[in-house]
Amino acid sequence: MLNRYFSIYLGAHLVPAVIGFIAITAYTRLLNPAEYGVYVVGMSIAGIVGAVFFVWIRLSVSRYQASSADVDFRGTAMVAYGLTLAAMGCVAPAAILLLSPDVNVYLLVGGVFTALAVGAFDIAQEFARATLRPYRYAAIGITRAVLGLALGWLAIELGWGGLGLLCAVGLSFLIGAVLNAIDGKAPRISRYRRDQLMQFARYGLPLSLGGLSMALYSTSDRLVVAYLLGPDAAGKFGVAADLPRQFMVMLASSVAAATFPIVFRTFSGEGLAATRERLNENIELLLAVILPVAVWLALAADQVAGTLVGQDFRASVTLLLPIVALARVLGVINQFYLQISFQLAERPMLPVIQSIITLVLSITLMFPLVAAFDLLGAAYATLVTEAAGVVITIVLTRKAFVLPFEPRRLAGVLLASAVMGVAIYATRSAVGGTGLISLMTVSAAGGVAYAAAAWLLNVVRIRTSMSSFLRLRMAH
């Protein structure tokens, strides 16, 4: 069942990831690094605001709607969102007065608008995922991505620059949230229940503190770069950081969308042994989809940067991409596998502790390394912090739900990725240069090598599943 759902969620995240790649290619040709830096800072503001005010609702929906298929939490979620908007209205004037001397007011407003839209969209999508409606989840997600690209391109063509791009992306999320609300097949929304809201608050509100520290950590590298080196450098670093994010986080999200609701329901109804098996499937599938992307980005950095980004960004992206790709692998493992331990155990303060420690470590490393080594220092600070974050989370899981780990099951993924790396390196040396033909040749060689190795090693039971499918088709 995991593989069936994963194939749908893979499309739901892969198509937006490809569109995201196209968007980066377009934006880095239409905007200069300084204007792209404005967009990067605005999205960072949106990430921080969203983590503080809306993540608690999304995580509560993920935890309770997935494990309670017969209970409707939508009315409670709508009330929680409304109360959150009221709270934001109370603190907004003070925040603008406090931050406006250092940050453009229009950039602040654009970031907050985008946060509101992304929050509504993510909560609505979480209901589709938690209630196991993958086709609707995919349709809305792909539509939103297409709208984001189209509206972003239009805003740039109209001369609205990085700020216009920020607001256009926010508008695409708002339209996606509205489309999600128009659902003729969904049952009537149940009325708000006070006990559900208290359940959300007890579980989710402590996560707001963790969400704040995690959002600050996720954006601190770009904000520190912008503060020390200016928006031009922030734009260049943002592109290098966004390239691995577009594919790895999107693919990891598809794994989580397929596996997390099933893990929660298995934990509630089938016991510990069955839950551990689902978790073993989760980590194997997660590594099987993100490791080849990391190998591709790291070893084909010249071809990726030389083809997908504008001329002003290529040198910095080529330099930084191998480092940030490895850092993103560690971050994905932490976020999309290790931290499910805290949700299963309903220990919301543990991710708060982890994220605060990680944030402090990131800032402690970022300032001196960026000051000493510019963008390369930011990349290394990110890598060290992500590695430390994995270790911290593993230690904390001992106080929550102890996760399974089967090295033999994961060895096939590592070996297939190594085969892919050898193929990319050999092809890159033979082809040489950059450009679309070089990128396609290197990518095809690596992809074929990985697919063949994965089939031979039966990674994620791909050979077994395909053989069973073919036998079933032949029998009919």
TrEMBL record:
Recorded superkingdom: Bacteria
Transmembrane segments: 7-30, 36-57, 78-99, 105-123, 135-156, 162-182, 203-220, 247-264, 285-305, 317-338, 350-371, 377-397, 409-427, 433-457
GO cellular component, one term: plasma membrane
Topological type in the membrane: Multi-pass membrane protein
Chief location bin: membrane
UniProt entry keywords in alphabetical sequence: Cell membrane, Membrane, Transmembrane, Transmembrane helix
Keyword Transmembrane helix in annotation: yes
Localization in the cell: Cell membrane
Keyword Ion transport: no
Pfam families membership: Polysacc_synt_3
Matching PANTHER family: INNER MEMBRANE PROTEIN YGHQ, PST FAMILY PREDICTED COLANIC ACID TRANSPORTER
Name of the protein in its database record: Polysaccharide biosynthesis protein
